[in-house]
Here is the input.
Amino acid sequence: MADVPHDLTAWRKTQRAALIARREAIDAETLDRWRRAIDRHLVRGFPGLAKGIVALCWPYRNEYDARHLAARLRRSGATTVLPVVVAPRQPLIFREWHPGVALVRGALGIPYPVDTAQLRPDAVLLPMVGFDAAGYRLGYGGGYFDRTLAALDPRPAVIGVAHELARLETIFVQPYDAAVDYLVTERGIYRRDVSAEGASLVFLE
Here is the structure.
């Protein structure tokens, strides 16, 4: 295992910028093809999503766009919610969202609902700037999802969504970093397994 960088914050900032630039270089046709593949994996691998309360994130800078899947899940009976920032350094809340719900733009210009019901998700489709071999997520640096997942009890199923090009050897995990339960990329589904030797992502299909 590589040594932890002397300035981990700076290292993560550099990795984050490089990974976002790599993601933003993906052409629209490829991005849509990967999105459709991720949709298929999620539908096949997680049938319970069709009946639960599912949190997704509004797509940002060429992230996986979960809105197509959300429409399909709602047709099957699911309820979809979006995260809402309440205050800096506080856990997120989740409000119901579907087309027609009034949205306002928050931090980074990302829309969120303001007057719909606040709900606790059964599952979270969590976008990842980067991910490592142990199933930990590199996000945008605000720590909102780490705080949120630590605060939710019971914790929802956490399904990371990313492209294969977001893979890192390690993010140099800190005590506050939250891991995913599963990871889905255009390649397929990974499960996070924990053993005496440590945690690792195991490719399922």
User: Anything to note?
Assistant: The chain is about 25% helix and 25% strand.
